Fold these 3 entries.
Entry 1:
Amino acid sequence: MKPVIFGLSGETLTPDERAFFADVQPAGYILFRRNIADRQQLRALTDDLRALHGRDDLLIMIDQEGGRVARMQAPVWPSFPPAGMFDRLYDVAPSSAIAAARANAHAIAVTLAEAGITVDALPLLDVRQEGASDIMGDRTFGTEPMRVAALGRAVIEGLAKGGVVGIVKHMPGHGRALVDSHLGLPVVTADEDALLTDLAPFQTLKGAPIGMTAHVVYTAWDADLPASLSATVIDTIIRGKIGFDGLLMSDDLDMKALSGSIPELAAAAVAAGCDLALNCWGRMDDMVGIARLLPDIGVKSKARLDRAMASAKLDRDNPPLETLLATRDHLLAMAAA
């Protein structure tokens, strides 16, 4: 098995992809809108991936946050609100906001599990800061670490009830970035004391099954390399100060924050301490290059992967999707009252 998550080019596996994936045995896959047409097609695709590897617990992930980040779209699937809605409700009724976030995540998980998707890149634990790039914005649970952690925990719990594993992101915190890391490299110059605010939600949820790194330079810790490529940040801050011992994946290596060839970046991320490199775009040349440069997955990383995938078991007594959505909407209405 190679320590990498690959994207796919389309709605079905091409013959070249099928042969390559069977040979390389990546740790998992990530899906985007280009891979999704309808319920029947999506379930057939995920079933095909599982059959190819003979692994019922295959890591098949998606970015289904709600709001502006949603790969599975209406009218085929429900629309889900952005995290900022739960932040607003928390101002009025904290316990209701937590219950609403849990019900919403549970509903997301029901739709994902039906499609054969096992992992969602949610929740964001980034603490939003005044003046930061809007790439986070209403995708976050707000500006107060305790609130972010409380709502984030509810999301992980809700996803797990529906049989889906959550990912806390973007470690050690993207909330101060003045630049969208999809477009350029953010450099955060805050000192270590200020950065304690960013670390706090991740420390509270350090037992999360999976974490995703940030393509952000933190000059207080490593003035040269972004967290995804920095052994110092991964070992000293994420594994050390935060205390996270779950499965750690990089953010997408194709983002403009990083420079260099995609295979070299994948190798650098794994060498720095990421358990898995994330390569989203399904370009065969890049994937072949990654497979050539990456070692086989390490024993510790494989154990983390297995532990993460075993952390969410579908509750056979799940309430109907409609009930979960109605519960969420009833609670969110309090924020508008």
Entry 2:
Amino acid sequence: MNVRRRHISGIAVTAAAALGLGTLSACSSDSAAAGNTDKFDVVASFYPMQYLAQQIGGEHVNVTTLTEPGQEPHDLELSAKQTAEMGEADAVLYLKSLQPAVDEAITQSDVKTKIDAATLTTLEDHGSVDHDHDHGGEGHAEEGHAEEGHAEEGHAEEGHAEEHSEEEEHALDPHVWLDPVKYAEIAEGVAKAFEKADPDHAADYRKNAEALTKKLAGLNTAYTDGLKNTDTKVFFTNHAAFGYLAERYGLTQEAINGLDPESEPSPARIKELQEEAKADGVTTVFYETLVSDKTAKTLAKDAGLKTDVLDPLEGITDKSKGDDYLAVMESNLKALEAALGAK
């Protein structure tokens, strides 16, 4: 829709090649027409947002992503070129507090439609961490929400002090896409934003969103039925990405690390997990595709446990057990059923 850049970013090209995004194919630095597309141009911050944009937008959208397939999204740093290109989009879809660099760039961007998925559902404090995604930053999660005035959702710093007696404040858990019910809520909100920003295709956006939410409802049913009757309700993960999923299906997530997948657990935490594995009949330590599995495998070896992949779906790569959100979530369900002793 906008008069756009002639050159698409290398990251977007890589994403198109890796994910087979037909909507990106027309955007080539070799084509003069690349600067004059009539599609609704959406920049997504990372894969779960990209998937929503593609599924809801269908043939009417041109989706690019800021996070390259295989890149750990928490670590993303944007180039000046990416930031400039973002400003030429019709809309940007992101999840505030997950990627501080993206939050900062969007605050400074003049893109007309800014869709924050965190405002389309309710973020929760799962109490499993005393820091946020802090790769050299200072409390981005709290700062970002406070500046937007989302005190009730973002736990502005004043509210945190009143609500929590702990010395350290908890960050809100951003991993809402791993709960199909909350992800469907976000999908409905994204569709409404697309309808408002691109009214010519509103009916199609609504129809596509309905189809997606129906699939997500089916996924929710599969998880509910599959995890209803299990030998144990406790599972170990590499980092605390599965709080919403655990809460939805009556499970207990015990994370080796907190919300930050790169943090190192203390020896006391490792000992605690070893003891809990024995007490709760835990069989498996889960690790993920985009982060080192070293700590998970060490814990498993020391405690006599198995290891398997539970994918937080922060990106799709050739290591992913599925080529899109639904397929990987179905693989995750099978892994959980096996680890928990589903009947």
Entry 3:
Amino acid sequence: MSLWTPLHAQIHRTIRARHLFERHQNLLVAVSGGQDSLCLIKLLLDLQPKWGWNLAIAHCDHRWRFDSPANADHVQNLAQTWNLPFYLETAINLVNSEATARNWRYQVLTNIAQTYNYQYIITGHTASDRAETLLYNLMRGTGADGLQALTWQRPLTDNITLVRPLLEVTRHQTEQFCQDFNLPIWEDSTNQNLQYARNRIRNELLPYLKQNFNPQVESHLAQTAELLQAEVEYLEQTARQLRLEASAKGEKGDLQLNRHLLKKQPLALQRRVMRQVLQEILPDAPNFEHIEKITALITAPNRSQTDPFPGGAIAQVQGEWICIIKK
């Protein structure tokens, strides 16, 4: 098998064209032992001579499976084979949900990166993951932001960035790559557990859509996420600017929003401004109803007000202003 495959060329081009990371950077690669992360680390190892990176492997053991210590040993052996630094984090408290597990992973990876001076944390998310995330969020109800949730880059701290170089590569391609290079994939039994909604999307829904609607469904959904990402970025930036222009502080230090300015703007921007405001004052992410009831105040009669939001704050119309009154 030649060392330089079309996939090597594609990832090399992607990293360069998207400025995912520069030469001679310290990259911490999250490796579970599954096909996507093995494909990722092998590609980066093979590209390393061209880029001069310092690579290291991090593995997170959730202790969800009886074989997780063996899984961790397997990844550590690979790191030794490739002569790479290896960092292992084992969960002390068992987490019971995918979301909590994901937050824990990003937290411990960030801690490792900060301690050992890695500027980038690299994960093996693929176009298939992007398609699954889009479908998962679509079915739960979401705006464009949820549909494009898996992005190429995301800052985790001021000097550490999360990067996903495989977002245009499908899971079928990573599997083929691992087979071509005889990479020892560790099969994660929890991926087959249909209790998890994501696994049902992966193992039941996407194969059904491929067979009955569109064989290229994964790539096409991933492309939809890509288009939405650029549009969301633009809207968020424009809304941030509008929010700055429309915001003022009231006598008691409460936030006030200028209705006259907001009235002239399209509904999409009005909603985004309100969402940004609510994100800062609510304990959890605002939902559709929260955003709609505060957006309605832009054109509501004087003295109109919302019922309390979670946490107790209310929004009230006072002449030309919407005042956010915290409890």
